[in-house]
Fold this protein.
Amino acid sequence: MLKLKSLLLGSMFGLLVVSAAVAQVTIDVSKITCNQYVLDQVTDFRTIIAWLDGFYSGKRNNTVVDTRALERNADKVEEYCRSHRDMPLMQAVETTLGGGDRAVGSKK
């Protein structure tokens, strides 16, 4: 019985260590292509959109999140990316939404 408990406890600990190691991933957003974004190959698209909105909002010193504008602009970027699959995602955002003046969630 003690051997079974030790084996079970060791297995549970091993799973926790593996899942924690998998969760520690960094992403260089500047290297994500439109194709990777459209196909969700890097991470969940909501994570990328939130990061992009924060990045461009930070450049404009904007602390407001307009969730409706964020969704509209994310749709525009995705539509553009579907026909420009090899383009870097950040370039697609800047092309689609007008460069640094407009973030993914910008009202403009």
Summary: DSSP finds five helices and no strands in the chain. The mean pLDDT is 80. The two ends are 66 Å apart (CA to CA).
